[in-house]
Amino acid sequence: MGAVHDTPAKGLVLVVEDEHPIADLVRLYLSRDGFGVHVEHDGSAGLAAARRLRPVACILDIALPGMDGTEICRRMRADGDWTPVIFLTARDDEIDRILGLELGGDDYVTKPFSPRELVTRVKALLRRAGGTPDRVRTLGPVTLDPAKRSVTVDGAALSLTPTEFDLLGHLLGRPGRVFTREELLASVWGYASAAGTRTVDVHVAQVRAKLGTAAALIRTVRGVGYTADD
Length: 230
Ligand code: CA
What we know:
This protein is α/β, with parallel strands linked by helices. The chain is 40% helix and 21% strand.
C-alpha cells in the first residue's frame, strides 16, 4: 500500500482545549511526531468531532465552554466508545473522579504540562490499546484472551477499558508474582513516575469492581503493590 498523502502515519488525535495557545502547542508537538491533529475549542463541537472523526485518541481539557471534558468522555463511554482519553486538568483533586468508573478516562496530565510529556503519554496509551496477540490467561473463574481483547468471569463477558484490560492482563501474566505500583506503571502505562502511582490504585479499584465476585483475585500486598492469585 502506498502512503496516502493526507492520512497521517500514526492516526488522528482529537484535541479539545479552549485555550488557543495550549491547543496550538499540543497540535505542533503531535504533528511533529507524525500524528494527525484535529482541534476543537468547544465541548459540544468536541463531542461531535469524536463521533464524526473516530480519532485514535482524545485529549480533553476539563473546563470547556459548551460541555465539560468529563461530560464528553462520559457520553463517549455511554455510546460504547472506548477510544483512549487523556484529560488535561488544572486540579490534582479531580484525579479520582477523572479516572473513576463512571468516567473511564485512561490518563491525565496536570497543567502546566510539558507537551513532550503529553506526546509520550499518547504514544504509551496507543501502544497499550493496540496490544499484541498473546496467550490466553486463566486464573480461577477469570479468563483473559489478549488476541480477542476479551475477559470473562465464569463465562460472562466483562467490558474493560484498554487500560483496565492491560493491567489485568499484566497481573494474570504471572500469577503469584507481586508487582510494585512503579513496575505496573512502567509496564502497563509505559512510563515511570512516583506521582502516577495513584493512577494504579484507581484502576485496580475499577478492575475489582468489574470483576465482581472474582474481585478478591487481585490482592493488595500492603506496602508493596498488587498480585493476582487464587
Ligand atoms: Ca479550559
